[in-house]
Amino acid sequence: MWKKSKVTDQTAAGQKVDAPERGHPNDKGIRKKSKVPGVMITQFEAELPEGMTTPDFSRKPIAITIQEGKSTAFKAIVVGNPKPTVTWTRTNGEIVFHPDTCRQNYSEASHEHTLEFPKVAPEDADTYKCYATNDYGRAVCTAVLNVIEVGFSKAKELQKTYGDDIPDFLRKKLKKRAPKVGEQGQNEPTPEEKVWEILMNADKKDYERICAEYGITNFRGMLKKLKQMKQEQDVDTAEFVSHIDTLKHIEEDDDEASIDLDLELKELNSKIFLYKDGEMVAFTKEECDEIKHSLKQVGKKHDSVLYSMDVEGGIVFTADFKVPDVDFAIKLQEVKADERQDALFVCVLTAPLNEIKWFGKNALLSNGEKFEISVSEDKLIHKLIIRDCLPLDAGIYAAVAGIKSCNAWLVVEADKEASSKGKKAARKNTTAGLGDDEDLLRIAKEQQERYQKEMEERLEIAKKAQSERDAAEEAARLEAQAAKKRSAETKAAAKAAAKAKKAEEGVDESASFQVGAHVDVEELSEDNEEAGQNSLFMETVEVDKVTSGDSPPLQDKVKGNDHGEETAVKQKGERCGTNEKRPKVKTVDAEDAAVGNHHGEETAEQSSEKSGTKENCPKEKIGDVKDTHVESDKGEEEEEQPPAGKRVRIRQGPLIEETIIDPGVHFLVGLSDCKAIIGEEAELVCKLSSEDCEGIWYKDGEEIKSNEGMTIIKEGSYHKLKLHKVPEEFSGKYKFEADGRKTEALVVVEDPPRFDPEELKTFITPITVKKGHKATFKLSYMGREPIKVQWFLEGEELSDEANIKLETSDGYTRLLLIKLQRKDSGEVKLKLKNEFGTAEALTELIVLDKPTPPMGPVEIVEASSSAIEIKWRPPKDCGGCKIGNYILERQQVGRNTWKKVGPIGPLAKYRDLDVDHGRRYCYRIRVETEMGTSELMETEDIQAGTKAYPGPPSTPRVVSAFKDCINLSWSAPANTGGTNILGYNLEKRKKGSNLWGQVNPPEEMIRAKGFAVKDVVEGMEYEFRVAAINNSGAGEFSTPSEFVFARDPKKPPGKAIDFKVTDSSYTSLCLSWIKPKEIKGVEDEAKGYFVEIRPAENTEWNRCNSNLVTTNFFTVKNMKSMAMYWVRVIAVNDGGEGEPQELNNYILAMPPPVRPRFTDTKIKSFMVVQAGNSARLTMNFEASPWPEVTWLKDDVPVSKKVTISNAEGTSQLLIPSSERSDSGVYTIVVKNIVGQETFSIEIRVTDEPKPPGPVEMEENVPGTVTISWAPSPDEKRDDRLHYMVMKRDSSKRTWNTVADHIFNNKFTACNIMPGREYRFRVYAKNDMGSSKPTESPKWLVPIKKEKFTVNMPRSKSCDLQCPPKFLVPLKMHTAPQGYECYMSCALKGDPTPHVTWLRDNISLNTNTNYYISNTCGVCSLLILRVGSKDTGEYKVVAENPMGRAECSTKLTVRE
Questions:
Q1: CB 3 within 8 Å of CB 149
Q2: Distance (Å, rounded) from C-alpha 154 to C-alpha 171?
Q3: Does residue 84 register a pLDDT over 90?
Q4: Least confident among 189-198, 610-619, 1189-1198
Q5: Mind listing the pLDDT tens digit for each residue in 1239-1249?
Q6: Distance CA 897, CA 889 (A)
């Protein structure tokens, strides 16, 4: 039960404060909204001091709905300076702070203010306010606390405990008075409320029955009110439940009834409450006797739990929460599709699921023409096909399985060619997103095996647990039986002892005896507790003693039950709600005490059956009571003793007779509604409780009997009505009546579309035709018209086109396909549909054509020296025929002819044994079928046995050279080709030639790894290369050797001359030298040079160049800045290296010393900068070594505000936001070890000057005027500020400068003419420009003027009146539809004529669709959007008292 509080205070704009006594004295401040919704701020002062703020909520408390007895808290975080104070109030009453009920806390760590309720009570439900207040304002927000009362509330418990004497401090907490005993019925809803509750949950077909039962006659009004109540219920339910479906009505099973429905809760932790007749009822998840409503878990599978509630009398509620334990093994992938193409999304689940939900752009998708949803047989692979994709279909598509989901994008690429032509793109038969189905099947199979394995493991665990429970129950049952047996033996012994005691006392045996049966309540309760059953309370019947002989029977006495059987039945009905089995108790007479009473049992069963209940309540059997004289024979009394363990008291006299009513013949199974198809058979069947009863059949109220069309059959208790070849006239209401009982059913005769079975067999046979031929499909059908006939080819509907002809007549349809192509093959479907159903017929069309070429690439199975084996893939399309042969041709690479290998059969592989080792071959493959031969597929070159040639040897090295011999050596190749190296081939080439000549004879290879070349010419220069030879042949040649002269060895050269440094930098050094002198026989000519350097800290020399330098200069790079190096150069020739030549001193890696100097030739020494802008100075200079750069302002180092950036050869000064105080002289000082250089720039930071003050004028000298003004406010701050004066007189329109560069506040203007008005403007000027002007008042020197008289001549009157006349007539107009049209004409007339526009002689002057104007005699009419209705004749009529004129034209509108 909800206990909602009423929100009486909202935080909207302009809200009044409910509790002003808690606020600030200045509550009537400025109201404003916070950035946080629902927070209102009141600012006490108009302007806040700097740094001070009003309070605000960075996190406000939120509304809470909670079950009573739980703990909860409101949380808020406030900000403001000074720190606000937080207080809490509630709308109804005051907050009572107590540690057990409510407390206010603040956390220093999280800065949270909390209002905590340790144990929520129903009276805590209210609207709470949170105030944050400081000296400058207050912020307030509200939060609602809703409390759910569950089960039996505390108020009721207090009422039960204290009764009417509840203490005052507890009475305040009670919301309602607990009802007294006997008043429970007062809370039950009225009959009117009950009927609306019944209608809210009933099916529409039951409305009429319920209204008749409760006396509702206004059926239309009932429907209207019911619709309104359902809408209100849906609004309330939508807060917690997403949707409710799969509702099943009450189903009774023995003593249990249930209702099933699926709830999808928005919050999984939402609580569920049960109500009966508007009152909340207590329930439990376990069965017990004290509470008869139970929420029982009857099924559990993973996270799926089915809960049910057992209710006596059929009032039940169940909720089925199904959360399948499933996930995605393969999730959706992004699909890119072309326009008008199909798109496919596929996912694989980890467990079988019949269906999943598909969403497209947040909308639930269902099967239809646009979307096709399918699932594999194993329920693991789910697919979504989007037909005919358009750009609008692009977006995110999602699959939802249980609580798991995945999504992916669909990207639709528009057909630009079709859209540019203004046409719709052609439909495409391909599908985007198709992947490898084998992988999907493989993964699905793995998931299925894993799932089955898990199910088997769970089943084994369940079986094991069940066997353990069965064993425990069997052991408990055996133990209970043993205990019961021991108890019975003990009781029998006690009874025997009691009888023996009575016999000793001489009790008269005939004085009394027992006639009825009595169950000891205490002993039965003990027995039932041992057996795990509930106790059953029975009545005790006492019968007074009777005398033996012929004395009359005594009167019956009933002890503890004045109502007899009625009370027993009532108790029985009240205790049928439990599922426990009751002991069966029989009450029999004296005669049947030993032998029982079977008639009594049957009568009780018939009575139970007639009552209509199916409860598993214990059957109490009461036998027939007879007035009988019973002899008091002890032996007979002992024979009539009940079995051991059961106590039965026997009383004298008859019991109260039970009245049993025979239910008579009734229906066990009634008739059911039947749908029959015309021409087929139908049957109605019902079953009676008796086989001897006959019945009568009726149709629409008239009795029917067996005839040619129908047969009435009786088989035992079954009564059947068979309808043969049902005609349409057989539809109607049929009734069967027997022994006053009747049952009815409707027979609806339908005529759906259907086919003749024989013709359908012929139709479904596939049709095979050749390419270019035609195919015909025809089939007759039957069914009630109208019937919609549709033909489909591969799922696409066909319509009449050039190659497609459709014919449909009464009961016959035909499809003709002309000029068929191979792509037209596929499934042909005929679909018929009328009001009764749909029928489909499927067949297949096969169009035969030549096959496509085989599919590559060709796989090389073997390529040895003796055989080549290849295989390939069959053609993508064999043309609808079986492959007969593959035709092969072979070509040896290097030849132009192709050799036909011949047909090789239908296998896609071939082994060629006729090959030569090392040769390369190419193959052509064609496919041959009965329809012809395909195009060829050509393979790449395939080599028969790969020859492994050796790799190249090392580069030949010149060991020595003479004028008649050059000695060479080399190393063997690293790659020998897998065999031994047999020898080498050596070649030589002269310098300048392109031809290589072999040194060794072709038939004699060189066995060694060196050779002396003697075939040389003295003075010539040669290079050499060598190739290795193995079993496969000669391999690749090595790289050529260096050029070598055929001459005797030379002497090393001498030292280089004049070795010096020509230039240097921080990373490089430029050297130069002179070639050493040649001394014959001692020092030969140098061929090249090596340059070496050595850092001062090292002892080893490093060679700078790996190849000889032939020039007399060299640049050493990659040196360390300012490092010290030693440098030398070595001359080299064929005789070797000469002696090195070193520099006399070490070298520093730095440029040559240069005195600093500025390189910019046009540097300004003065700069003006507007205040607020940035000032930037860039100075370029050169200096070596790197100088020290310093910036000064007025000979003082610049402030930290100024940014200095130095780089190589440049320095920059930046003032980000300049001010007037930044004005001054800035000096840059560049200094190094050689010297220093300075440069100064004056920077003036200023702004546009403010205008001067008011201007005054006076005349000291006639013809002059002295102008004075107040100085500009910037005059004191800017020493370069001056003034400019401009003048304008009344005879001129322009302003002229009369004075400039005025450094005082006065100026005298000359040449002031009397009679003219003068104005003056004064401007303040500086380096940034001029200020706004200050204008003087008018200056006028008056002059005396003589009186001037003008004699005007008399003018003659002229009559200009004339009738209207068109000067420019209307023109013909032709305008496109949708464009504007403008018509105009010119006319004259005096007085001004009245103009009227007409279209087809209808005035347009008052029509708002036309814009009409008349300006200076030009009349115009504008039509904004011309339509076909505007076509017609347009006329302009001009009228005045002098006459009338007309002008007309025609308007034609183009489509």
A1: yes
A2: 12
A3: yes
A4: 610-619
A5: 999 988 888 88
A6: 10
Q: Which residues of 953-987 are buried (b: 16+ CB within 10 A; e: fewer)?
A: beebebeebbeeebebebeebeebbeeebeebbbb
Instruction: Tell me what the mean pLDDT of segment 506-518 comes to.
Output: 39
Give a three-class secondary structure readout of 585-628.
CEECCCCCCCCCCHHHHHHHHHHHHHHCCCCCCCCCEECCCCCC
Tens-place pLDDT, residues 178-189? 343 334 443 444
- Average pLDDT value for residue range 852-862: 89
What residues are paired with 1184 via a beta bridge?
A: 1154
Beta-carbon contacts of residue 232 (< 8 Å; ≥ 6 apart) = none
Return the pLDDT at 1111: 92
> Is the model's pLDDT at 1023 over the cut of 70?
yes
Which residues, other chains included, contact 74 with Cβ-Cβ below 8 Å and sequence gap of 6+?
61, 62, 64, 88, 114, 115, 128, 130, 143, 145
Model pLDDT, residue 851: 92
SS3 per residue for 368-382: CCCEEEEECCCCCEE
Is there a contact between 1138 and 1083 (Cβ–Cβ < 8 Å)? Answer: yes
Six-digit token string for 1142: 């070193």
Beta strand 1373-1376 with 1443-1454 is parallel
Position 258 scores a pLDDT of: 58
DSSP class of 178:
P
Q: N- to C-terminal Cα distance for the chain?
A: 71
Residue 919 pLDDT level (bands cut at 50, 70, 90): confident
Q: What average pLDDT score do residues 969-986 get?
A: 89
Query: Kind of pairing, strands 682-688 and 899-903?
Result: unpaired
Residue 154, exposed/middle/buried by CB under 10 A (0-12, 13-18, 19+)? middle
- Whether 131 shows a pLDDT value over 90: the answer reads yes
Closest CA to 748 of 773, 769, 766, 730: 730
Q: CA 476 from chain center: how many Å?
A: 57
Q: What integer best gives the mean pLDDT of the chain?
A: 78
Q: How far apart are CA 1430 and CA 1364, in angstroms?
A: 27
Residue 728 confidence (pLDDT) above 50: yes
Among the residues of 185-218, which ranges form H helices? Answer: 191-200, 207-214
Distance CA 535, CA 537 (A): 7
pLDDT number for residue 505: 64
User: If we measure between CA atoms, which residue out of 1334, 1339, 1357, 1449 comes closest to residue 1397?
Assistant: 1449
Burial class (CB in 10 A: 0-12, 13-18, 19+), 1251: buried
Instruction: Provide the 3-class DSSP secondary structure of residue 1392.
Output: coil
Q: At what angle do helices 219-237 and 207-214 cross, to 10 degrees?
A: 110
Q: Which residues in 270-327 belong to E strands, given as ranges?
A: 275-276, 279-280, 294-301, 304-310, 319-321
Give dist(CA 126, CA 616) in Å, integer.
Answer: 49
Lowest pLDDT segment from 353-362, 499-508, 1237-1246: 499-508
Average pLDDT (313-334) is 63
In this prediction, residue 327 carries a pLDDT of 87
Kindly list the distances between the CA atom of residue 426 and the CA atoms of 390, 434, 828, in Å, as whole numbers in the listed order: 12, 20, 21
Distance CA 18, CA 30 (A): 17
* Rounded CA separation 583/735 (Å): 44
How far apart are the C-alpha atoms of 1266 and 1295, rounded to whole Å? 18
Q: Which amino acid type is present at position 527?
A: D
**Contact by Cβ (8 Å): 537, 526:** no
Give the pLDDT mean for 1195-1206: 90
Instruction: Report the 10 Å Cβ neighbour count for 823.
Output: 11
In terms of Cα–Cα distance, which of 1064, 1114, 1067, 1066 is closest to 1092? 1114
- Of residues 598 and 147, the one with the higher pLDDT is 147
Report phi then psi at 157, rounded to 5: -65, -40
Q: Nearest Cα to 938, choosing from 1006, 840, 870? A: 870
